[in-house]
């Protein structure tokens, strides 16, 4: 949860719990209709609802923070362009996830090319989580993080996207990661089992 | 009576909170995304990105070079661009085909640092539809072409 970032007073912000702040009350249809009609607050509520998902997708593809930021911003700018053409607002999160994934793949392919470039100026691909230890609340959290970092890429990617706030539906995860929707549940269970095995005995949950 | 949480959900919830703290969404990204709405242009037609040498072309064509070719299309109008990247800046050379353009503006949003869009940089278009815009800040770029009939075509936002 992002502490202290509920700043501007916004009509759509009133009913938010600590997690999934915008999940209650206002539907995507209402927000898309509002944003299409020119209501900045409706737009802001969409931003609040899905930016964490877009960030999680970009980071799950191991993009460095600067490229991940470009993906998130490009995705929002594309939505601004396409607002009038969103025919089915229920599919908005899927549209956002698809757009973000395509931009991630584009940047990854570009980065591949630039390995050959004489004067590549971009960041190297992120070779895994390396958090500031001080950011992690406690020793147990640091242990979990270290275990997560030892998971294979595929499990890290899936669990990273599933950890977005608010958590995405499996339909959205399916387009974000190009996975069959039916395989997400079983794969999540397998990845969590692997993660549990990587935790020391003392940190096993009951 | 409530059922206890599934151990998987408990572990996933713990992981989610750890990831959110360790790799948070940068605050400026929320600001930038909210500001993106201010760049909505209801009057302009959008030319979609249809070709990108960084992705489509054989690697041999672009190896060892910072030059990237982008094509945007809407209807019969095509905007072809060469984007050459320098540290923090890009030069855009291009040509508008299939319509008569009078001027081109480049709007760029730097996602590093300031969230706001930089002031658009405008350039004239010559008789063959060619234009040259140098020193545009790197980031996410949009070109806007003003056509002789008074309408405006903008390119889809593209990170450069």
Give structural notes.
The complex is a heterodimer of chains A (206) and B (160). With 206 residues, chain A is mainly alpha-helical. Chain A has a single domain, classed as RNA polymerase sigma factor, region 2, helix turn helix motif (Rna Polymerase Sigma Factor, Chain: A), CATH 1.10.1740. Chain A has 8 helices and no strands. The longest helix of chain A is centred in the middle third of the chain and has 23 residues, at 92-114. Chain A is globular and about 55 Å long. In chain A, 39% of the residues are buried. Residues 1-23 and 116-124 of chain A have low confidence and may be disordered. With 160 residues, chain B is an alpha+beta fold. Chain B has one domain (43-159): Sandwich (Immunoglobulin-like), CATH 2.60.40.10. In chain B, strands 1, 2, 3, 4, 5, 6, 7, 8, 9 and 10 form a 10-stranded mixed β-sheet that branches. In chain B, a hairpin with a 4-residue loop joins strand 8 (140-147) and strand 9. The chains are: A mainly alpha (206), B alpha+beta (160). The interface between A and B is large, with 62 and 51 residues.
């Amino acid at each position: 949860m992002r502490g202290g970032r509920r700043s501007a007073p916004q009509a759509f912000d009133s009913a938010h719990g600590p997690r999934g702040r915008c999940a209650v009350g206002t539907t995507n249809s209402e927000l898309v209709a509002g944003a299409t009609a020119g209501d900045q607050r409706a737009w802001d509520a969409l931003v609040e609802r899905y930016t964490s998902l877009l960030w999680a997708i970009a980071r799950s593809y191991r993009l460095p923070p600067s490229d991940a930021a470009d993906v998130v911003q490009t995705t929002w700018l594309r939505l601004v362009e396409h607002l009038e053409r969103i025919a089915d607002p229920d599919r908005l999160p899927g549209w956002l996830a698809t757009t973000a994934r395509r931009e991630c793949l584009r940047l990854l392919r570009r980065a591949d090319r630039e390995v050959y470039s004489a004067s590549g100026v971009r960041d190297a691909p992120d070779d895994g989580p390396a958090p500031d230890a001080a950011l992690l609340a406690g020793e147990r959290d640091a242990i979990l993080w270290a275990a997560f970092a030892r998971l294979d890429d595929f499990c890290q990617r899936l669990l990273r996207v599933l950890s977005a706030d608010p958590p995405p539906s499996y339909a959205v995860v399916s387009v974000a990661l190009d996975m069959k929707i039916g395989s997400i549940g079983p794969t999540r269970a397998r990845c969590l089992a692997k993660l549990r095995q990587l935790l020391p005995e003392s940190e096993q949950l009951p | 009576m409530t059922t206890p949480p599934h151990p998987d959900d408990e572990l996933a919830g713990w992981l989610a909170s750890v990831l959110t703290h360790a790799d948070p969404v940068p605050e400026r990204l929320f600001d930038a995304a909210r500001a993106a709405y201010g760049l909505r242009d209801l009057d302009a037609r959008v030319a979609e990105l249809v070709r990108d040498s960084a992705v489509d072309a054989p690697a041999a064509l672009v190896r060892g070079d910072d030059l990237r070719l982008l094509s945007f299309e809407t209807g019969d109008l095509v905007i072809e661009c060469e984007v050459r990247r320098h540290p923090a800046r890009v030069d855009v050379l291009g040509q508008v085909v299939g319509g008569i353009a009078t001027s081109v503006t480049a709007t760029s949003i730097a996602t590093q640092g300031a969230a706001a869009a930089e002031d658009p940089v405008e350039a004239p278009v010559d008789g063959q539809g060619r234009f040259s815009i140098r020193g545009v800040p790197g980031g996410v770029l949009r070109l806007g072409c003003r056509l002789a009939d008074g309408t405006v075509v903008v390119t889809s936002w593209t990170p450069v």
